[in-house]
Inverse folding.
């Protein structure tokens, strides 16, 4: 396997576990082969990503974060999925293209960066559709640099700015430092956003922020950071109101409910006031578990 040295010791993400993943899994519960829980057309991304036919989403198992409200906990924390080779991953990309996918959407990819590069080396010339890095934001700039020439669109989360909050809910006190540096690097790699005639994103950065109930102040801090730090035409923003309490969220009373309409509206208004007009504010009606994909123990192909 190419790029195997990146797993031994593994320092691909800010956890810096140093695990030799040939023999031992790190915090992300992953070895040296990619584990995929679902690969199919996905209709629930932002319109510029979903397009007409759907995004070709590949959901990877394991995670380098420990979010207590994780909506994909079955795969992030419980390990649902099938271990495959890098070549099979390349075949999955081609299968999604043949099904009509608008793009290849790598969901939660960080801990499998070397496998993804290997798979794209096999098929990138045959794909002809954008490849999306759809990540939680807890990443290292050095790892993002490895993606130069492979990734067209970056879709990072920016979940928190306050270290106490990121530690409490995701077990990562250094989340904002890592995520902000990663976004800097993504912007440097992708450049200004480009869209086709139908409004589909071809390249660029779309920063996502999931508004947490009772934490409008944190959302406003993130909006302030983005509007004060970057050229506003260089990235798009997606404010997501889809929060539904899952997994261990019920242990935290303040996040054990859905967002209110008022919280969602105030966040959208504040983004507008700060000039973040390029992007999306998800309708509060999207908050339902019907948008959480089912995951399989066996891949559906
Ligand atoms: S990718 Fe996994 S093993 Fe590697 S440093 Fe991050 S959490 Fe640890």
């Amino acid at each position: 396997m190419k790029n195997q040295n990146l797993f031994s010791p593994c320092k691909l993400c800010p956890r810096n576990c140093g695990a030799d993943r040939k023999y031992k899994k790190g915090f992300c519960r992953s070895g040296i082969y990619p584990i995929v829980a679902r690969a199919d057309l996905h209709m629930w991304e932002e319109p510029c990503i979903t397009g007409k036919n759907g995004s070709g989403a590949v959901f990877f198992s394991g995670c380098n974060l420990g979010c207590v409200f994780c909506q994909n906990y079955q795969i992030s924390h419980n390990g649902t999925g099938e271990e495959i080779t890098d070549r099979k991953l390349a075949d999955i990309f081609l299968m999604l293209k043949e099904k009509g996918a608008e793009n290849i959407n790598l969901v939660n990819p960080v801990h499998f960066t070397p496998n993804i590069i290997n798979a794209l080396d096999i098929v990138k010339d045959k794909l002809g559709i954008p490849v999306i890095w759809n990540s939680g934001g807890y990443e290292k700039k050095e790892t993002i640099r490895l993606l130069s020439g492979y990734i067209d669109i970056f879709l990072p989360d920016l979940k928190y700015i306050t270290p106490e909050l990121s530690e409490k809910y995701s077990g990562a006190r250094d989340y904002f430092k890592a995520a902000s540096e990663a976004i800097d690097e993504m912007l440097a790699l992708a450049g200004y956003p480009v869209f086709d005639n139908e409004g589909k994103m071809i390249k660029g950065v779309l920063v996502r922020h999931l508004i947490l109930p009772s934490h409008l102040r944190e959302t406003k801090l993130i909006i302030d950071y983005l509007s004060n730090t970057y050229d506003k035409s260089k990235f798009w923003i997606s404010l997501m109101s889809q929060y539904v309490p899952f997994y261990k969220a019920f242990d935290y009373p303040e996040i054990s409910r859905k967002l209110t309409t008022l919280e969602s509206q105030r966040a959208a208004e504040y983004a507008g006031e700060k000039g973040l007009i390029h992007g999306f504010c998800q309708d509060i009606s999207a908050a339902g578990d019907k948008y959480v994909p089912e995951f399989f123990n066996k891949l559906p192909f």
